[in-house]
Predict the structure.
Amino acid sequence: MEERKLLSALLAEVPHTIVSGSVDIPVTGVTSDNRKITGGEVFVCIAGTVVDGHSFIPQAVAAGASAVVVTKDVAVPEGVTVVRVEDDRKALALMAKEWFGRPSESLITIGITGTKGKTTTAYMIYNILNGVGIPCGLIGTVENIIGDRHISAAHSTPESIVIQEYMAQMRDAGCKAVVMEVSSQGLKMDRVHGITYDYGLFTNLEPDHIGGNEHPDFEDYRDCKKKLFRMCKKGIFNADDSHFPEMINGCTCEVVTYGTSEGAGYRMTETSLINEPGKKGVAYRVEGRRNLAVEVDIPGRFNMFNSLAAVTLGCEMGLDVTKLLVILKNVHVRGRVESVPVSDKFTVLLDYAHNGMALRSLLSTLREYQPKRLVCMFGCGGNRAKDRRYDMGEISSKMADFTIVTSDNPRFEEPEDIIRDILVGVAKGPGEYVTVPDRREAIAYALAHAEAGDCIVIAGKGHEDYQEIRGVKYPMDDRQMILEEAARLGLSGK
């Protein structure tokens, strides 16, 4: 039987005015996409930056919409209920929440915001909660996880209807918690409006997503991030970040801090790098509200902070710390400095770094482990700014000992043309290099020529499981190719 709810019930939290018709009518769903109307839905018109949903009212009504929600005067055929609201996106979020039965109220809700570290921290928390017996779902940049289902993600923070639907599916699948990446755009566009988070987590802040249709300036970017801490009960903040005082200014939540700062509630001390053949990681102690020894098999000092954020949350939730530390040590995040075990003589890592800033950070992180050689394999996406190609080529040539230039997602360009641009940057550095246009062959070359003590990083695609060529996405998974080529070469994984 088709589910129906009264429109008046969906509008319970939405300030509104009835322009025509009645809100005491049953509707079969809520949507802002007229193409998804099959009959009986309420159509919420979103006045977007590119497309105005009000222009699709005729199509929505023709498809069977029983009501429309608007923010301005429009012509609507007789017999269709018209409701006017002040804020279209907030109205959509609140109506979606009611339609799906307020799912966030049945879950422990954890929102993570910041410029870097959201994905890794979210996976750490997701693994910890599931590992200690709290079934947890995930909404994030790489994928959305509901029970055993893994759904590829289009945005770090999906549209409000999708968020509410996912949380309802998590609730119905037996999940008790959800951890989600909450992007500045997700907050700016009110995609998470109406959710009260049990925990909000701040990783760090630096200029990003500024310009175009995103944020006009850094202040807007920062202030959008801050909104999360007026929507949560307890905020967990990186006290080392230079913008920490600004982030807590005006927040309404309880404040808990982590970092190396003297006053941090969870203070990191005695930091060290784990550097063994075929294995890279970090270790440190926690002092303050808890005294713990932490070890994580993911390289990079920034992962000390990501993991400390997860530890802080776990302690604040009252989780079994012994179990938490065991789970955290073995956590791996798809495509984020992910170790692929193929040999005990050299290390192979997979990472999503696909621009100059990310590649510089990655290579400087791995250089700290003092490998015999640092080998970097990458390509660049087609139909994107050429400056990225020059930058990545120059950075790899200057920071890696050996560079393997290959193909990424060529899209509508020829791979050889992209490689030619990358080599302009490579020529500015002293590093040796080779070009192997076929990505699988490039991986095979890297493994076949590896030397004991090497650290090989396969960069650019990370978690992606496809290669886009002329509008078609073909199956391609770096991790799978690494394992297959290692097996073909007879390498012994650990």
The CA atoms of residues 157 and 186 lie 5 Å apart. Residues 5-99 form a domain with the Udp-n-acetylmuramoylalanyl-d-glutamate--2,6- Diaminopimelate Ligase; Chain: A, domain 1 fold (CATH 3.40.1390.10).
